Amino acid sequence: MRTPSLRLLRLSVLAVSSLLLLSACGGGSDDPAPVVTAPDPSQPGQPSRPTQPTPPNQPNQPGPTDPEPPVEPVLADTFTAWTNDTINSPPGWNAWVAPPNRATVSGVGCLINEDFHQHSLVSIYKDGVRQGLPDNVGRGGCTYEFHTHDGTGVVHIETNMPKKFTLGQFFALWNQPLGANGTAGLAGPVRFYVIENERLTRYTGDPAALELVAHREIVIISGTAPGVLPKYRWPTTL
After folding, report:
1. Residue 11 in 3-state DSSP?
2. Residue 76: which of 223, 199, 190 has the closest Cα?
3. Which of 76, 109, 129, 148 has a beta carbon 3.0–4.6 Å from 104's, enabling a disulfide?
């Protein structure tokens, strides 16, 4: 008679094998196991936002700067010989042409009587060099109430009574433009100064309004200014 223990052992082995097969095939569950797939390297992903390159260190660039203010001239401490300095100024303009028919120009007419006589000085500098004015401005056809005799820039005011005249009237008679943007054919900017009582003063108003006062020097500068303006001693004859 065969012992039951061997048969039971065989049945147990078969049962365990069947359970293992069912587990491998997913038996006993209605939901399939989730499948995890790795990304396909051949498929392109979402484009990423490009990164901005880091700018290199910029050198310190100088910003816009205002132009350097012009150098202001100073008045000399000592006096300069009048005749040598003014007579030898290089001529800067052609001879003056008189208006036709002895016409009055800007309120300046022909001389009647020389009962009032005084002198003023007009000095014009171009790039640091004093220019000689035309001689005989206002002396042609008739002698006008103010005029020049030579290239020194001395304006002789000769009238029948005390009168006031201005730089604007002198330039009108001379027939030359006068202003900060250009004067007598010289380029602007033009600067104006007054030398009076041994003192130099910058004038920023309307140059045409400057009065021709006795022993007053009106200085007109175009371009580079001289570092030192001469201080003239007025001759006793003027």
Report:
1. helix
2. 199
3. 109
